[in-house]
């Protein structure tokens, strides 16, 4: 998808006549079914006029131009790409990331700078790193570039900035970035023109542009080998027993289906800590090493972003989301690994899609159709939001409707909770989610579980474990408001219990945060996350040595009624809405929420209950 493409002559002409922004706006509305913001339209007008001036000055009148080009299987769009031929007649393209910034300052975040954007100062990626990432992504995944037939370069153009206000961009810590993907300021036009000319100055851009627009997504073997090497060098990704059995079965299926039209769905079921995600990343590594196209998908931004961070920037493109496959060619992927598949939605459609781009397929069907072998790693009792519909039955029914064979594996060995399967069974039994033999919690179990009397005690326990060198976090039910950061980027102490208070982890759209506060996606992995309380949406999918749980009043136990959901104490607006339609559904979702929180610990879990009766009931289910 792109919002504009044409010859450089047409681009310069339409820009000089102030027509370009309106044309892009119309195409934007036609595609997304809502109007772009006024600020975005102004940015197109202002930046593209400056880009056209550069092309006019450089005599670039036989080139191709594409604006707002969407990178395959992502929602990211690069600003401008100019195509043509360079010296020796070699076809090529240049990515230009356009910025309206007028100054930049230092940022505490690696590879970032600070600038005034969207009404406040924000930490943003250095334009050289942004342009370089787009270039690498296309080289790794776009057939027109991965073959090596087209040269690809990239740069940034900060047309409102003067060199003397751009000192931070050229700081020595950015030396490598600037050398590979140079940023040009408004008074660097005499340097920008020859940079473009070297790759696309010989013209013939229309033909090259067509090759780019006709190209398809296909991971290059270099990328697959890189992803495999990164994962294989991580000793924590070792498989055992039934994990290895499931893993080997999937490998055999991918090889068997590679040259056929058959497709198979593999359903791998297991509770918390049974190693579902270990299987997922190992499958990705092995299939990538063997040259098969393989992708990992989830429905969790925090989980996916931490995986991307763990494997490194280059391998990150192999990790994506469930809603990325609505336009995928059937069977175009050899292996699609759907991790945390319980977080699938009914549909990948959203209110911003234009009518003709909406899919009549369920999201699970899109995933089944996209790959020859699709693997669903699932825990039926980790659905925590009403719009999450993933389940074993859903996969079975969707596969049957498509004529897709389903094979199943069950994971039982426990690799979390100090290897105590008894603890997970006890949690499930106590929450009345399923009947298990573990009615009472035995205090001599190797897993360290305890109920504490005060939030201060819970906080102190978690901090003491962290001081001993363990990973430890506090988490809570969604029973308190969640404020935006204050003007200085600090967080509000929203979680208040009997005089004790702490902030929630930062919101996903929090903007610039004060130094030392991690972005929401990295609360689970950044040591500074110890200073905030996490909710289920930032904790799900992760594990810590020790977890401290604040159990709010949204789920209480009454000896004459059993478990009672109390939506009036919930601040999760989406889950609360489900209570109006189906009170029992609200109770089930909140039970799942506390099950997720209680099973995040590798070695121990400590709990503080706001409600005394609930505390007494849980204690009655323990040996004392």
């Amino acid at each position: 998808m792109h919002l504009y493409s044409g010859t450089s002559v047409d681009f310069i002409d339409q820009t000089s006549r102030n027509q370009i922004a309106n044309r892009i706006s119309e195409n934007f509305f036609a595609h997304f079914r809502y109007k772009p913001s006024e600020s975005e339209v102004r940015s197109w007008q202002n930046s593209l006029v400056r880009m056209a001036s550069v092309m006019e000055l450089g005599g670039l009148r036989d080139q191709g131009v594409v604006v707002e080009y969407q990178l395959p299987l992502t929602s990211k769009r690069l600003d401008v790409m100019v195509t043509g031929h360079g010296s020796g007649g070699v076809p090529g393209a240049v990515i230009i990331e356009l910025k309206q910034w007028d100054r930049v300052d230092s940022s505490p975040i690696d590879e970032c700078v600070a600038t005034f954007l969207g009404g406040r100062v924000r930490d943003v990626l250095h334009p050289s790193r942004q342009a370089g990432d787009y270039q690498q992504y296309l080289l790794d995944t776009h057939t027109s570039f991965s073959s090596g037939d087209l040269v690809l370069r990239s740069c940034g153009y900060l047309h409102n900035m003067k060199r003397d206000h751009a000192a931070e961009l050229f700081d020595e810590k950015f030396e490598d970035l600037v050398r590979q993907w140079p940023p040009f300021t408004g008074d660097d036009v005499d340097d920008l023109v020859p940079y473009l000319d070297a790759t696309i100055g010989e013209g013939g851009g229309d033909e090259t542009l067509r090759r780019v627009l006709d190209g398809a997504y296909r991971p290059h073997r270099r990328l697959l080998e890189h992803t495999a090497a990164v994962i294989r060098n991580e000793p924590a990704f070792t498989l055992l027993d039934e994990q290895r059995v499931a893993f080997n079965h999937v490998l055999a299926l991918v090889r068997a289906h590679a040259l056929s039209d058959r497709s198979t769905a593999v359903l791998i079921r297991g509770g918390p800590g049974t190693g579902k995600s270990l299987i997922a990343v190992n499958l990705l590594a092995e299939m990538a090493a063997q040259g098969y196209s393989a992708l990992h998908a989830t429905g969790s931004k925090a989980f996916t972003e931490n995986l991307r961070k763990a494997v490194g920037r280059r391998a990150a493109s192999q990790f994506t989301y469930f809603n990325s496959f609505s336009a995928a060619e059937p069977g175009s992927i050899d292996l699609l690994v759907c991790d945390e598949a319980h977080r699938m939605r009914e549909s990948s459609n959203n209110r911003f899609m234009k009518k003709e781009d909406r899919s009549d397929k369920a999201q699970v069907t899109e995933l089944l159709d996209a790959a020859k072998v699709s693997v669903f790693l699932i825990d039926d009792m980790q659905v925590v939001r009403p719009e999450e519909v993933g389940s074993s039955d859903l996969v079975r029914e969707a596969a049957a409707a498509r004529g897709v064979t389903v094979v199943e594996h069950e994971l039982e060995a426990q690799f979390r909770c100090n290897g105590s399967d008894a603890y997970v069974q006890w949690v499930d039994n106590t929450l009345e989610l399923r009947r298990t033999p573990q009615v009472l919690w035995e205090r001599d179990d190797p897993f360290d579980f305890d109920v504490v009397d005060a939030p201060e005690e819970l906080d102190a326990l978690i901090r003491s474990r962290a001081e001993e060198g363990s990973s430890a976090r506090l988490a809570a039910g969604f029973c308190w408001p969640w404020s935006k950061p204050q003007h200085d980027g600090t967080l509000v102490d929203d979680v208040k219990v009997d005089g004790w208070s702490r902030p929630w982890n930062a919101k996903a759209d929090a903007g610039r945060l004060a130094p030392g506060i991690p972005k929401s996606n990295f609360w689970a992995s950044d040591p500074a996350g110890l200073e905030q309380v996490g909710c289920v949406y930032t904790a799900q999918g992760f594990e810590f040595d020790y977890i401290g749980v604040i159990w709010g009043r949204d789920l209480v136990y009454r000896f004459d009624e059993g478990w009672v959901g109390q939506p009036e104490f919930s601040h999760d607006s989406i889950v609360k809405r489900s209570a109006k339609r189906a009170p029992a559904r609200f109770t089930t979702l909140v039970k799942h929420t506390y099950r997720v929180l209680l099973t995040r610990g590798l070695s121990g879990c400590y709990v503080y209950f706001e409600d005394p009766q609930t505390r007494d009931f849980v204690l009655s289910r323990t040996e004392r």
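The chain has three domains: 2-214, 221-411, 417-620. The mean pLDDT is 88.
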